[in-house]
Write a structure and sequence with these properties.
With 228 residues, the protein is mainly α. It is built from six helices and seven strands. It has two domains: 59 residues, no CATH class; 159 residues, Butyryl-CoA Dehydrogenase, subunit A, domain 3 (Up-down Bundle), CATH 1.20.140.10. The longest helix is centred in the middle third of the chain and has 37 residues. Bound molecules: flavin-adenine dinucleotide.
Amino acid sequence: MADYIIVHANADGDPDKPTLFLVDKSQHGVRIAREPKFTNTYVFGHPEFVFEDVEVPETRVLGPVGGGLELTKDWFVEARLQIAANTLGAAIRALELADAWASERRQFGRPIRDFQSIEFMLADMAVEIIAAKSLVYRVAWEIDSGADRKRVHAHASAIKLQASEMAGRVLDKAVQIFGGRGYMRENAVERLNRDVRVDRIWEGTSEIQRVVIGGQMRKRGPEVFCGW
Ligand SMILES: Cc1cc2nc3c(=O)[nH]c(=O)nc-3n(C[C@H](O)[C@H](O)[C@H](O)COP(=O)(O)OP(=O)(O)OC[C@H]3O[C@@H](n4cnc5c(N)ncnc54)[C@H](O)[C@@H]3O)c2cc1C
């Protein structure tokens, strides 16, 4: 659907100083190699593009030459916060559905929520959510209030890692509470479970978030995460 692509490339040979370029999708040399099917069921696809002898004028450089990483970091803050909010929303929906189902579904003569193993799962889901929600609002507030850029970058990695992994755990429990129905494509938690999986991969995998967080602690100490 997009008209142009933001391409991250090395302009002066230094891999640590990439540059961003705006490239029109219709430009000569740009083509889609294939559109693989992914686990999720989003309406938009994720095509693989190929660039062959694509030339762009200087006017299509986004920001300064060699300044691509700095711009990308700004964008990552927004994107990582957005992923945290998305996954939090998915987890809340899953808890609402699982909670309602636990009251409705009866086994052995009683609602399944009367089994402590089910109610404890619901309790753990709720606690994970309240913790993640507090952090999402905290980091969003920091961004809005213009907190130090490096600190915000570190916190955006932390919340992306925490919320996306939290959603994975919560969705897994929701599927379990639904039993066989949780594995049916007609069930919302089945879809949510599939859809949140990618949030541990894109915009930096969970491992890369840990690299960012670990790097910040080396440079600035644990205070960057704990001193507030
Ligand atoms: C559905 C979908 C849509 C996407 N859309 C876009 C998009 O619009 N734009 C875009 O730019 N990208 C997009 N991506 C790409 C996505 O950002 C990458 O898949 C992701 O960053 C991981 O890179 P990779 O797939 O090359 O995995 P790899 O880098 O090969 O990683 C493989 C494994 O090794 C680990 N690993 C790699 N390096 C390290 C390290 N230094 N330390 C520890 N562990 C490491 C990873 O965490 C992972 O577990 C999309 C991906 C998907 C699945």
